[in-house]
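#struct-queue
[09:14] JT: dropping the first one here, sequence first, then the C-alpha cells:
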Amino acid sequence: MSTVADKLAKKSTHKTSAKQVRLRLVYIDFWSAVKLSFLAAVALAIVTVVSFFLIYMVVLTTGLIAQMDEFLRGFTDGSLSISTFLGLPQVMAFATILAILNLIIVTVLGAVVAGIYNLAVKVTGGLLVGFTSN
C-alpha cells in the first residue's frame, strides 16, 4: 500500500539527524473526546454570550432600537414597541438559552464523531501520522 507519506519518505535524498516516526491513529478515547468537546463548547458559549452583549450595546448606542420603535409607531397606534421585547434581560436570556443548547449539541457531536471514527478505523485502518524529533 503506497501512500503519500511513503512517497515523500522515499524522495528524501539527504539524511537527517532527526528521528522520524510514523504512527497510525486507530482509537480515540470516547470520554476524552467528550471532555474536549465539552471544553470547546464552554468556550463557544462564553463567546456567544459576550458577543450578544456587545452587539446589543452597539445596536442600543447607535439608536437603531429607537428608530425601529418610531418606524413601528407609524404603522400602529403606538401599542407595539420593540424596546419592550428587546431589553437587555431578554437579549441575555436568549443568548444564555442559545449558549446552553450549543453546549449540549457540540458535546454530543464530539462524542458522535469519536464513535464514528472508532467504527471507521475498522474499515480504513486508521489515520497515518508522521512525527519527527529535531
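[09:21] JT: and here's the second one, same format:
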Amino acid sequence: MDDHSIEDAPESLDEPALKRIRAVATFLDESVEIPGVGYKIGADPILGALPVAGDLVSAGMSMYIVAEAANLGVPLNKLLRMIANVTVDTVVGAVPVLGTLFDAIWKANVKNVEMVEDHLESMAGDDDEFESDPVKIEIDEE
C-alpha cells in the first residue's frame, strides 16, 4: 500500500482514524513478505483457511474500514464500491483453496484504503466544500 501524505487535508480530518484503517488493511492484506519473491500477503488468506468463520472474521474487520470511511466523509457511491470489494473478497474467498489464493491477490482492504485516501486528497483542494454558505430566506410581505 502506498503511504499517501495528506498535507493539504481539511483541518477536520481524523488522522488517527486514517492511520487505523491503514493498519487494518496492512494487517489483512500485506503484513508478511514472502521471502525471495517480494510479494506480501496478510491475515486475510490465512483466516480464509478456516472455513466460514475465518472469512466472516475477515469480512468484519474489512467492514470496519468501510465504517471509518463513512466517518471520514467518503460519499455513498464510494462506500458502496468499498462494500462491493468486501463482498467479492468474502464470497470468492470462501471457496476452498482457490479462495485463499484469491484473497492473497485481490487485496480488497488495500483497494478500499486507497479509495479513502484518494477521496481525501481530492477534498484537500476543495476547502469550499467544508465551509457552508449562509442560507438567505426572503419573505415577501405583500
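[09:30] RK: nice, looked through the second one.
[09:31] RK: The longest strand covers residues 32-33.
[09:31] JT: good to know. The helical segments are 15-29, 43-47, 53-71, 76-93, 98-106, 108-124.
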